[in-house]
Amino acid sequence: MVKLKKKQKKMLYRIIIAAALTIFFAVSSAVGLFKFDDPDMEKLFYFICYLVPYIIIGYDILIKAAKGIAHGQAMDENFLMAIATIGAMILGVTYTGDYDEAVAVMIFYQIGELFQSIAVDSSRQSIQKLMEIRPDSAFIEENGELVEVDPEEVQIGTVIVVRPGERIPIDGTIVDGTSSLNTSALTGESIPRDVIVGDEVLSGSINLSGVLKIQTSKEFGESTVSKILDMVENASSRKSESEAFITRFAKVYTPFVVASALLLSVVPTLLFFLADITLLDTEVEEWIYRALTFLVISCPCALVISIPLGFFAGLGGASREGILVKGSNYLEMLSDVETVVFDKTGTLTQGVFEVSDVVTNHIPRERLIELAAAAESSSPHPIAASLVRAHGADIDRSRVTDIEDVAGKGVIAKVDGISVAVGNKRLMEMLDLQFEEAPAHGTTVHVAVDGKYAGCITISDIIKPTSQQAMKDLKAAGIKKTVMLTGDQDSVAQKVAKEIGLDEVHSQLLPGDKLEHLEKIIKDTNGKVAFVGDGINDAPSLVRSDIGITMGAIGSDAAIEASDVVIMDDDPTKVATAMGISRKSMLIIHENIVFTLLIKFLFLGLSAVGIVNMWLAIIADVGVMIIAVLNSARALRYRKK
Asked: Where are the alpha helices (H) located in 32-99, listed in sequence order?
């Protein structure tokens, strides 16, 4: 059941009252309920009667038309409806005595407007849900009590308290408490995310269980929720080429049809006059009637409404999938992408280093990892953290003594009194140990135990589980080429490219090199080129590409700011989803343009030769608008094939 807003309810009541009065007056006229000896008095009486429902249903249209004329912007659908219905009322007074058509035209038009308003509200819902993620307050603890404050007044470094059921108002780091967060408003992901002390959390997430104390890392205006809302609010200001075309089309089309209608009412009379043929009053009336019908049909509201609605629905459909498109122009450009260029770390891979391979010489695998993790347990380096995670158990640091950091090479320590050396090949060479440098797809950590070479551990960035599927989806979507640009070693880059199915890879690139390669790809490609990245070093490439797409959950602020599309859950398959939504939206929009123009011009021709009356004209006009609006609403939902 559709829930109507107050304004929509008011319009519905106006339609019902006007329709009831019109039907009553039409029936009373047909059965002769009110008797008049003078036909002119009867015309005047029914004119006054019909004027009541006409004003009830059409007063806002008449006011808008008058304002348009006053501001020099008369050529719109309100002007067309006003002159067509007023003309029909005048015809009723002077000739026919029929007024029901004029009122019916207004009633049907307002039914179409009401239907369009409901459809627009429906398409807004997914985007309006984003507006609900803006928290109105934040809580800080003072003297053992929670004090409610405006989030905009909270400074960086302040500890805020978020209770179960509340939204996190500002980005920050958890300093106390554990909980699960609902991040669906940001990422589209329905599975709650577990968080503990030390985890970074984003504003807009809902705290589901425990009380959290969060130290803010940003001001409210710079938080994730504020940036998302800013993107949404500014998206409508970036018009697509199709929307700009409709605006230009309407400016030319409306004066053209008004002039055509005027000629349709005047030219036949003039031609007959020149041919010395006198037209009867009824014949003059017929040509005026055709001109008025022509105006009713010519109303471009179906185009003016359905095209922007199609884009708006597409933007809403994308937001449902956790994809924020910053404007309808970018939604349109996505449909023309032929080549997608990817960064590697954090985009196709998780950006988290894990142990991927272990080669041992004379000790068990688990023992090698344990000794290496223990020796590195005091180091803050990511590789050390990877070794500790691979060991999977707490390390008693009292077991580790005589720790010696060897700059640029590794660490030497005693674990349980046994000498352990962990580092790169230069550390092994320094210790005069013989080893074989096996080709590795990642960072190789060599380990020596008690003065003997014990083996090596390979640590590499883990490929995202959806990256391979993302490449398949892009190929299925018609993307001609997928490319990866990365600063990693060639062996690592080639392994990732082969595993996930990329067409082309360029490795060992500095940020400037990435931009040079991207420039060459753009130059050699006929269609649009999209770049997908997440880091600060990707910002130049995101700006230079035709469409910049950022992984928003872990992406840097600079990258998100530079991009045109933000994928909130970092899932690379969403790149193909965004393009699918774009292409579906553009197909719907093109369908609307072709269908609307074909029906318009068909009925315009029929009205000019007198085949179509005003009843059929308004049914055609409103019918086309309703069909176009319904078709546009399909863009709200995207079903992956």
From this structure: 39-70, 77-91
C-alpha torsion angle, residues 611, 613, 618, 623 (rounded to 10): -40
Higher pLDDT, residue 499 or 126: 499
* Helices and strands in the chain, H and E counts: 20, 22
**Do 364 and 455 belong to one domain?**
yes
**Overall number of domains in the chain:** 4
pLDDT digits (tens, 9 = 90+) for 358-375: 888 888 999 999 999 999
Cα–Cα distance measured from residue 140 to residue 601, given in angstroms and rounded to the nearest whole number: 65
Looking at 423, 444, 462, which one is the last position of a domain?
462
CA distances from 616 to 289, 380, 626 (A): 13, 78, 15
> Strand runs (DSSP E) across 227-336, as ranges?
323-325
**Environment class of 179 (CB within 10 Å of its CB; exposed 0-12, middle 13-18, buried 19+):** buried
In a domain, 286, yes or no: no
Last-in-domain residue among 407, 431, 462: 462
Residue 431 counted as domain residue: yes
Q: Is the pTM of this model over 0.70?
A: no
DSSP per-residue letters across 501-562: T-SEEE-S--HHHHHHHHHHHHHH-SSEEEEEE-SGGGHHHHHHSSEEEEETTT--HHHHHH
Angstrom distance (rounded) from CA 280 to CA 602: 29
Tell me which residue has tokens 């109507």.
4
Burial label for 370, CB within 10 Å (0-12, 13-18, 19+), is buried
Structure tokens at 439: 């080709």
Looking at the fold, whether 262 and 384 belong to one and the same domain comes out as no
Residue 304 lies inside a defined structural domain of this protein: yes
Give alpha helix (H) positions in 337-435.
Answer: 365-376, 382-391, 425-430
Please check whether residue 532 is in contact with residue 575, taking contact to mean a CB–CB distance below 8 angstroms: yes
Q: In what order do the strands lie in the sheet with 193-195?
A: 193-195, 179-182, 206-207
Token pair of 43 as six digits: 């015309």
Same domain for 344 and 405, yes or no, is no
CATH code, 415: 3.40.1110.10
The CATH number for 556's domain is 3.40.50.1000
Cα–Cα distances in Å, from 594 out to 112, 182, 335, 531, 606?
20, 43, 18, 32, 18
Any domain includes 521 = yes
Active-site amino acid positions: 343
Element (H, E) at 628: helix 614-633
Answer whether 356's CB lies under 8 Å from 441's CB.
yes
Domain match, 382 and 401 both? yes
User: Do residues 107 and 21 touch, judged by C-beta distance below 8 A?
Assistant: no
Q: State the CATH number of the domain containing residue 146.
A: 2.70.150.10
Partners of 550 in the β-ladder: 533, 566
Is residue 148 located within the same domain as residue 196?
A: yes
| Residues spanned by the domain of 365 | 350-462
283/64 Cα distance (integer angstroms): 33
Determine how β-strand 443-449 pairs with β-strand 172-176.
Answer: unpaired
- The per-residue pLDDT for range 211-254, each reduced to its tens digit, is 999 999 888 877 666 665 555 545 444 445 655 566 666 667 77
Same domain, 262 and 117: yes
Are 434 and 476 in the same domain? no
Pair 547, 470 in one domain: yes
Least confident interval from 278-287, 317-326, 351-360, 482-491 = 278-287
